[in-house]
Please model this.
Amino acid sequence: MKGFVQTIKNIWSITELREKLILTFFFLIVYRFGSYIPLPGIDVNEVTRLLAAQSEDQRGLLGLLNSFTGGSFNRASILALGIMPYISASIVVQLMGLAVPYLQKLQKDGDSGRKKITQITRWLTIAICLVQAPAYLTLLQTQLLPYNGGFHSAYLVDPGTFWFIFPSTIILVTGTIFTMWMGEKITDRGIGNGISILIMVGILADFPRALINAFELDTTGGIMFLLEIVALLVVIMLCVLLVQAVRKVPVQYVRRAQAGSSSYMRSMTDSVRSYIPLKVNASGVMPIIFAQAIMFLPATLVGLVSEADSPMMMFLAKVSDPFSWQHSAIFAVLIVVFTFFYTAITIPVNQMADDLKRNGGIIPGIKPGKDTADYLDDILSKITFPGSLFLVFVAILPAIAHLFGVDQSLAMFYGGTSLLIMVAVILDTIQQINTYLLNHHYDGLMSTGRTKNVA
Model:
């Protein structure tokens, strides 16, 4: 405990790190505050009462989307759409980058190209919001706060009129843009990846309530609840291993020293050994976020299908249930595809081979240039496939846990998108904090916390 307190003091003593943390916490507080502000015309007290009565029966991807937005989705908040439209836009832009020459050119233009791609992503986010906002309002009237022509107690105005739909659509779009802006500001001036941190905070907001529900539903005197917590800790450790596992590729750098008076010094050849760390899960949490964003589409379409007993409606309902085998099967395929796709676009093996050759680095037994690129690509393919399968297992683990009787609100934290995002974001944030601490001659968060003696 003493070491932990000392580490907090060390963090607070670094002015730049302190300012970044304060800015990050400020935006997180604003984000959480915004998730409780309802749309105009919504009675927040009545919505709270309805949610309390319906929370135990809530199922499907709508519940997961609600956790991604920190409860904003069900509360009819101004931030109800959250950051998911931006994630969807990012997926579309990256996929188009494989086929559209203009985007391919921008990807090769460095910082200026990235800025233009970011601007395109922002405009596409607005376009997606303009589609999702009316769909959300329709879903609000049909499922979350049912409205059948007469005034529902949760509505202060008629939700079917232009004066409710139009301003609500503008507010929802603005809320997503504001959330996107906060995420970018956290990334630029705060600590960690802002978009991922906002998602993580929304997920963690439901964790205490999930623990309380699981404890209240336990009829074994706390034994089952204790076993569930132990199993959750084991799953967390597996996720940490998945995020941090690397395949080290040995590299040898050769340098010549010709200075000095002796013939020995003039002809000396020195070699330095190092390695390239290729992550087993090089794509991080992005494949599961991308796959989840696509899996939200059936839940959105459910509110647009008028015939409740139609085959299309029944199929969409099955796919929208994260505990069904149909959802798990489609989800698994999407994760594997996005894992290979995102790894391919984020790890340029050809550029890595060129950099090694230019800096005098070689992989023992492999010729520089194309052979090195092929060798790295082969290794990457071999470790990405089992990594993607492990990612799939963790992603569908909530459905498996639910089959064993774990309450569905707590089962969502047994892997899946929620746990992987939390683990990845927390480890990434800790790594950035450690960088500041080590640069200022302090032990990192994962160490004892004692200040090092520096001369």
The two ends are 27 Å apart (CA to CA).
